[in-house]
Amino acid sequence: MTNFNNFIYDNAINDYLFAIFFVYIGWFLASNNDEFNPVSSILLVSVGVVVSLLEILLLWKRFDVLPTVSGHLIGTIPFTVGAAMCALSMPDIGRNSRITKFGRYTLGVYASHYLFVSHLPQLGSYIDYPFPEIIYPAAVYSLSLLLVMLLAKNKWLKRVVI
Length: 162
Prior knowledge:
- The chain is mainly α.
- It folds into two domains: 3-89, no CATH class; 98-161, no CATH class.
- It has seven helices and no strands.
- α5 (106-117) crosses α6.
- The longest helix is centred in the first third of the chain and has 26 residues, at 38-63.
- The radius of gyration is 19 Å and the shape is globular.
């Protein structure tokens, strides 16, 4: 890795100061009494995606930073703020879908997903980039959900995982 690669990986990804942006924006959104517009929130998500792609392209072409190393970029901020605004502006979206029945397993999935995160890293060695970034989270979530659903069948464990 070049010196710039080390700077990006060591300082941008692992820098806790990056979280200050999200704390401040969350405080601003919480104190905002206006209703959020779904169109502006989707536009903000789109801007975040475009900015992230442009950042990745710039870092790759100008500084030889591989797209797999670039990590959390500035485009993450408008993307996540837009996603939060989208959730706040459309509270009924997905209300009557099949996915909502899995919502009660959220705590159990969160608590158990660490078991699968540590045991599935070899998955990337069999599949070419960028598919591991899609398949790996889906596999971890699916296995965690399956485990929690099985644990919820036991009357004593049901109180713990749901």
